[in-house]
Each structure stands twice: as C-alpha cells, then as structure tokens.
Amino acid sequence: MRRLSELAVEEREEASRAIREHLEGWSGYRAASCVLLFAGMSGEPDLLPLLEAVGEGDPAHGRRFCFPKVSGEEIEVY
Q1: What is the number of other CB atoms lying within 10 angstroms of the CB of residue 27?
Q2: Residue 34: beta bridge partners?
Q3: Based on CB atoms within 10 Å of each CB, which residue in 8, 12, 45, 49 is the most buried?
Q4: Distance, CA of 23 to CA of 42 (rounded, Å)
Q5: 24-72 pLDDT per residue, tens
C-alpha cells in the first residue's frame, strides 16, 4: 500500500473519504459519546469533515470531539 503522502490530491481525498466512511460505519464510533480526532498534516487523513457531518437529528449530535496537543513527549487532550 502506498503512503497517503505519495498519492495525487484526488486520490488522497478519496482515501480520506473512505477512512471517514469506515469510521462512520463502525459500531464503536457510532456508540461513542466522545471521540479523539486529530487535524491531519500533509499526507495524513483528513478527518475534520467528521465534525461537519454531525448535525441536528444525527445520532452523533451532542457527541464530544477532542483533539490532542503534543508537546515534546507530553500529550494533552482538549
């Protein structure tokens, strides 16, 4: 499997979409009240549209999304 960073922009967007769809279909994700996400850097999956997908009437409405902040060897969650 090629690394995401080696893909063309369109392929990278499609791969990120496939990852998000897989997560959205996973029962553990659907049942979670809090999800730890990351804001991907270049070459990493784009998961941020998961935040935009949550709206009124969505089973995930009211779910908390948290993000890690890495500083050296320390990780804080916000």
Answers
A1: 7
A2: 64
A3: 12
A4: 20
A5: 899 999 888 899 999 888 788 999 999 887 766 565 667 888 999 999 9
Q: Per-residue pLDDT averaged across 14-27, rounded?
A: 93
Helix/strand/coil (H, E, C) string of the chain?
Answer: CCCHHHCCHHHHHHHHHHHHHHHHHCHHHHHCCEEECCCCCCCCCCCCHHHHCCCCCCCCCCCEEECEEEECCEEEEC
Tokens of 37: 């996400």
pTM (whole model) above 0.85: no
> Which structure tokens are listed for 38?
């990351």
Is residue 38 a contact partner of residue 32, using CB atoms and an 8 Å limit?
Answer: no
Amino acid at the residue 42: S
Indicate the residue type of 78: Y
Given this model, what pLDDT does residue 44 score?
87
To 5 degrees, how large is the angle CA 62–CA 68–CA 3? 105
Residue 73 token pair: 């060897």
